[in-house]
Amino acid sequence: MHVQIVLFDGFDPLDVVAPFEVLHAGRTATAGAVSVELVSAEGPREVTGGTGGLTLRATAALDPGRPGWVLVPGASGRIGEPGEEAGEDTVPVLLGRALTTPLPELMRAAMAHPEVMVATVCGGSALLAMAGLLEGRPATTHHLGMDLLDATGARAVDARVVDDGDLVSGAGVTSGLDLGLHLLDREIGPRVAHAVEELFAHERRGIVWRARGPEPVAF
């Protein structure tokens, strides 16, 4: 199981570090059956995150044809007040900048590849939706971005983690822990996921939403 975690200018550090730590622990727990790397659309480079300016190094270019998972984080910045002109440090502007890079076309290629699956944390799903890549797909994001997700053609689901087969999305920033554990559970097995969960002293929250079973009757 190989996971490419994408860095772009303005990324949210916790969206990246939380799943990276979980998956790297999964590598140890499986004696190397899990691998994870930081990549960017432009190739190896230093990439600066949003609020706080944490810089991480992408060690390779995003390869949309490599079997495994591609994980897209959200951006870190101000949300802005209703009616306020979007500033340079706001999340919509940071996501918009990412859309002007090669990233959207690389993600389009990745999502078209039968052996590549995509995961997102927080605003990562909004980034893909803004690129027109989530039309009609159920997904989740930070609670402040649910309207944006709906408006850009995705089907916003208010859940901690949404599993739609080859697309798995996490909600707010700390959901990266839950998403990473879900990927380990799904791809490797519950014993490994449980061992990593115990190591991190973190209990996964909520039900992983899937489009299965009967529709619930309204309460």
From TrEMBL:
Cross-referenced Pfam families: DJ-1_PfpI
DJ-1/PfpI domain: residues covered: 2-185
Keyword Amino-acid biosynthesis: no
This protein's UniProt keywords: Glutamine amidotransferase
Annotated protein name in UniProt: Glutamine amidotransferase
Organism, scientific name: Streptomyces daghestanicus
